[in-house]
Design goal:
heterodimer; A: 361 residues; alpha/beta; Rossmann fold; 2 domains; 5-stranded parallel beta sheet; B: 236 residues; Fumarate Reductase Cytochrome B subunit; two-stranded antiparallel sheet; 10 helices; elongated
């Protein structure tokens, strides 16, 4: 008989009371109404446990670091035991051939029934030789493992969009996983790293409801990426009022005014930082006085300075952006008009002189 | 048809003979022109101030709403601009053939290309006289197509896409225009295109106003009064 989530949790020493608390907490964090708590509980009591295989390609392990710091201790315990991270190179006890054997076994035993979570991305240049795991290019392992997965989660900016290793000129051709894996539902959970509660929330949703959460056009779960940081920012009233930090450490910075003029990317970044926040809801970048750098947006390394909200336009030189290019064009047009008008006036004057001389009109 | 015969044909068009007056721009076209002009002024100024806000105001946040009012003016003008553009498209269909000029370029017509060359030479002071045209001259026609029609489409699509970020997922702005954001590579890139479009239009307005005033004085046809009365009078 296959184990259910509930069996696993009880075996881990989690009481029924804690379990039910977890169910209602999860329902709330997923933005569902309270009736879903019972539904989650029922699903976890009856459904067989789904194993999660966690692969790591070109990455820095910040997603794993974030994940294991999921704030609420209950959530952490439950999700970690529930997830049965059967294969996670950083967290699992096994190593070497033993670990690789385990991966093969899960793939065989749960064929078409496990969730693949990918942290980092595969480099494609030189046949993938820039990232070797267990003696093989990561891209091969990724494709094989994805082929028998039920669904795929792309953790962080790396797996979702490429992140720093894919920044121009991208020497290893690091490639987001959705460009490599085809025919599988992929949930993108961007961020560098993503918020711990967002990660556990997505996993919990997929495990308990046995389906992927509702996604937006860019493949991100709507429940966490449906709004911009700006939309729910606690400094938003200062934006609407027209009160900005004009430079670092000025009086307005001390008053906690809006960081828009300091290049805060909150208005162009979709994430849950301003609602869920970080470190058990303690704070988030803007609350600490620094603008958002837009780490959960596509290609955020290639969009110019972290302190400027307008994208660099490389074609016009290193330090140019839309406003500089456009402003220059308008100024040049204005100057050209002035010169042209002067020349035209001259021509007109000359013509009427000529007309007078020749007696014409 | 070579350029010389094209030139002769344009020069001898009886419709543009000296002293003749032709009705060119119908009422709705003229009305749209001036409403659109006003919208562009409001949109450019408020848009610039949204991208680069004024110095901070003092006092409690609850007592101020400066950015809010600026953004409101921008959005209100944007709706008028967009609706005006749609009405203008409707009028291109039902109006006279001059109303259609803004929406199509006769790129297969050698006469049109000859006209562009002539106009460029005229602006470089290499021609004594420009040709006369009932509607837009070919160079103006090209610029208006690019910086009025194409630019308006760019601004309306990127503008409503950006508006949908505030209106939220599932709003009609999101359903109709939300796809623009991932297509352009994200919210910030969409903002950049919106900024570039504004500068393109501002540059066009500078040239457009100058050319209209200059040609009114120096060419052989009325310009500014034509967009008020709709009548174009030709001189020698």
């Amino acid at each position: 008989m296959t184990e259910t989530f509930y069996d696993v949790l009880r075996r881990q020493g989690i009481s029924r009371r804690s379990f039910l608390k977890f169910c209602s907490l999860t329902a709330t964090s997923l933005g569902l109404d309270s009736s879903y708590a019972a539904e989650i509980a029922k699903a976890m009591e009856t459904k067989p446990r789904t194993p999660v295989i966690w692969l790591e390609g070109l990455e820095c392990t910040c997603c794993s670091e974030s994940f294991i710091r999921s704030a609420h201790p209950l959530t952490k315990d439950v999700v970690l035991s529930m997830m049965s991270l059967d294969y996670h190179v950083t967290l699992m006890a096994a190593a070497g051939h033993q670990a690789e054997k385990q991966l093969e076994e899960i793939k065989k035993k749960y064929k078409g029934n496990y969730i693949l979570a990918v942290e980092g991305n595969p480099p494609l240049n030189e046949d993938g030789m820039f990232c070797i795991e267990g003696g093989r290019p990561f891209v091969e392992i990724l494709k094989e493992t994805a082929a028998d997965a039920k669904a795929v989660i792309a953790w962080g900016a790396c797996a979702s969009y490429g992140c720093v290793q894919a920044a121009k000129p991208n020497p290893t051709r690091a490639t987001p996983i959705d460009k490599v894996i085809s025919g599988k539902p992929i949930v993108k959970v961007p961020g560098c790293p993503p918020i711990a509660e967002v990660m556990t929330g997505v996993v919990t949703y997929m495990l308990t409801f046995d389906r992927i959460p509702e996604l937006d056009r860019q493949g991100r779960p709507k429940m966490f990426y449906g709004q911009r940081i700006h939309d729910k920012c606690y400094r938003r009233p200062h934006f609407d009022a027209g009160q900005f930090v004009e430079q670092w450490d000025d009086e307005n910075a001390r008053k906690g005014y809006c960081l828009y003029k300091m290049g805060c990317k909150g208005p162009t970044t979709y994430n849950a930082c301003s609602t869920v926040r970080w470190n058990d809801g303690v704070s988030f970048p803007i609350q600490s006085g620094h603008g958002c750098i837009g780490c959960s947006e596509e290609g955020f390394w290639d969009k110019g300075s972290f302190y400027d909200r307008v994208t660099d336009i490389k074609q016009f030189g290193v330090e140019s952006n839309a406003d500089k290019v456009g402003g220059t064009a308008a100024a040049v047009a204005g100057a050209a008009v002035a010169v042209h008008a002067a020349a035209s006036a001259l021509k007109k004057a000359k013509k009427s002189d000529n007309d007078k001389v020749t007696g014409g009109n | 048809m070579n350029l010389n015969t094209a030139a002769a044909e344009l020069e001898n068009d009886p419709e543009t003979a000296a002293g003749k007056t032709v009705y060119v721009y119908e009422g709705p076209v003229r009305l749209w022109h001036w409403i659109n002009a006003l919208c562009i002024v409001v949109l450019s100024v408020t848009g610039y101030l949204i991208g680069s806000p004024l110095p901070s105001v003092s006092g409690e946040a609850s007592a101020n709403f400066l950015m809010g009012y600026i953004r409101f003016a921008h959005f209100a003008a944007a709706y008028i601009f967009a609706i005006g553009f749609m009405v203008r498209i409707y009028w291109a269909i039902v109006g006279n053939h001059h109303a259609r000029q803004l929406f199509m370029l006769p790129i297969t017509d050698p006469k049109w290309w000859a006209g562009i060359v002539r106009e460029i030479r005229w602006y470089l002071f290499l021609e004594k006289q420009p040709y006369k045209y009932v509607g837009h001259n070919p160079l103006a026609h090209l610029f208006m197509f690019l910086f009025v029609t194409v630019a308006a489409v760019l601004m309306i699509f990127t503008g409503f896409a950006l508006y949908s970020e505030g209106a939220g997922l599932g709003s009609w702005q999101d359903r109709l225009f939300g796809w623009v954001i991932p297509m352009l590579g994200g919210s910030q890139a969409t903002h950049s295109w919106h900024h570039l479009g504004m500068w393109g239009i501002v540059t066009f307005v500078i040239l457009h106003v100058y050319a209209a005033v200059r040609e009114d004085i120096m060419s052989r046809q009325t310009m500014i009064s034509t967009m008020i009365s709709g009548q174009r009078t030709f001189r020698e």
